[in-house]
């Protein structure tokens, strides 16, 4: 990503997303919908990856090889270290039964198909999740599968013939994904939660935001209102959703549209400072590492008998994670 494109407010949004996920996983009751932080991450990825590819294509120097090498350098080293550390902990801590199941999850994480593996197991919110230190890697698999598909699709959409219809086609793809996700919630909620086609509309929302930002209305009051609305939608989902909320589907539009509005107006003069303050930016810059570490730390701490964490335990685990 070009330095001129760097936006501190997006790192601030990443901080909001990762903190909400962490506090949800650690059982902080007020953050009952903190799992929506993952959806915010998907919107951010859709925006950043689309902007990156679009800019490089328009400049005439996009290559798939360079794109995938950059993604690999960013994602795989930290993931590999996490997987090795989890393997070592599981070897010494887990029972033979849980270690065998861990082996299956490890293989699928290496192959970037964790989401398929966990779809075929129990649900994300099941109590047995506390024995799965790699459960959270399902989101990485969804992202990596998106990376495999999206560059080729953008190459087609941004070609001379299709370029005038690019936004409409992306909206159409997202609409089909959303409709299918909502329809299948009643049939196979696990599939809708874990599988990439049912999450694709979240990336599409981020992608469309690239074009919206290019034609942004730069009037301070409008920007403040839009940013406030976006943050309010994200907070609404974090504090009112819970394990019983039908999700993703239509309900995921609340945090996803919220994230898109924040990206659109994140540079607002007053509210934008909430996102671009140094602490939020610092957390956002290490959000990937925090996400990778926080769940295994929780699982191995809880094993073999899960319990609700005391405030002191939440603080201690958070300190270890950060």
Structure characterization notes:
This protein is mostly helical and 322 residues long. The protein has helices at 8-25, 37-59, 64-93, 96-110, 114-119, 138-157, 166-184, 189-194, 200-214, 220-240, 253-265, 272-276, 278-285, 287-302, 311-321. It starts with 7 loop residues before the first helix and ends with a helix. The mean pLDDT is 93. It has one domain (3-321).
- Mean pLDDT reading: 93
> Gyration radius, to the nearest Å?
19 Å
Stretches where pLDDT falls below 50 for ≥5 residues? none
> Roughly how much helix do the residues carry, as a percent range?
over 70%
Class by helix and strand content? mainly alpha
Strand coverage percent: under 5%
End-to-end distance: 25 Å
Order of helices and strands: HHHHHHHHHHHHHHH
The count of strands amounts to: 0
Q: What count of domains describes the coordinates? A: 1
Number of helical elements: 15
Principal-axes geometry comes out as: globular
In this structure, how is the largest beta sheet organized? none
Gist?
This protein has 322 residues and is an all-alpha fold. The chain has helices at residues 8-25, 37-59, 64-93, 96-110, 114-119, 138-157, 166-184, 189-194, 200-214, 220-240, 253-265, 272-276, 278-285, 287-302, 311-321.
Secondary structure: elements and pairs:
Elements lengths: L7 H18 L11 H23 L4 H30 L2 H15 L3 H6 L18 H20 L8 H19 L4 H6 L5 H15 L5 H21 L12 H13 L6 H5 L1 H8 L1 H16 L8 H11 L1
Helix pairs in contact: 1-2, 1-13, 1-14, 2-6, 2-9, 2-11, 3-4, 3-14, 7-9, 9-11, 10-11, 14-15
């Amino acid at each position: 990503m070009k330095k001129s494109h760097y936006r501190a407010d997006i790192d601030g949004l990443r901080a909001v997303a990762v903190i909400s996920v962490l506090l949800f996983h650690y059982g902080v009751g007020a953050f009952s919908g903190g799992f929506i932080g993952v959806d915010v991450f998907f919107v951010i990825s859709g925006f950043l990856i689309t902007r990156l590819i679009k800019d490089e294509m328009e400049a005439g120097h996009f290559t798939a090889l360079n794109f995938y090498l950059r993604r690999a350098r960013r994602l795989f080293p930290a993931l590999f270290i996490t997987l090795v550390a989890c393997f070592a902990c599981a070897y010494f801590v887990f029972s033979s039964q849980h270690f065998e199941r861990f082996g299956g999850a490890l293989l699928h994480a290496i192959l970037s198909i964790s989401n398929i593996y966990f779809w075929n197991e129990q649900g994300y919110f099941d109590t047995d999740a506390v024995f799965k230190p790699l459960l959270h890697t399902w989101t990485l698999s969804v992202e990596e599968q998106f990376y495999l598909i999206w560059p080729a699709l953008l190459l087609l959409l941004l070609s001379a013939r299709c370029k005038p219809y690019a936004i409409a086609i992306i909206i159409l793809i997202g609409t089909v994904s959303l409709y299918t996700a909502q329809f299948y919630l009643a049939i196979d909620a696990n599939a809708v939660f874990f599988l990439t086609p049912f999450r694709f509309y979240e990336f599409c929302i981020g992608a469309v935001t690239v074009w919206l930002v290019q034609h942004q209305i730069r009037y301070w009051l409008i920007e403040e209102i839009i940013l406030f609305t976006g943050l309010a939608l994200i907070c609404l989902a974090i504090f009112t959703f819970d394990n019983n909320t039908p999700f993703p589907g239509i309900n995921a539009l609340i945090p996803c549209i919220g994230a898109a509005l924040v990206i659109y107006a994140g540079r607002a003069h007053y509210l934008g400072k909430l996102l671009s303050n140094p602490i939020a930016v610092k957390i956002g810059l290490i959000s990937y590492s925090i996400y990778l570490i926080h769940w295994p730390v929780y699982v191995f701490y809880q094993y073999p008998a899960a319990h609700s964490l005391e405030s002191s335990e939440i603080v201690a685990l958070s300190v270890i994670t950060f």
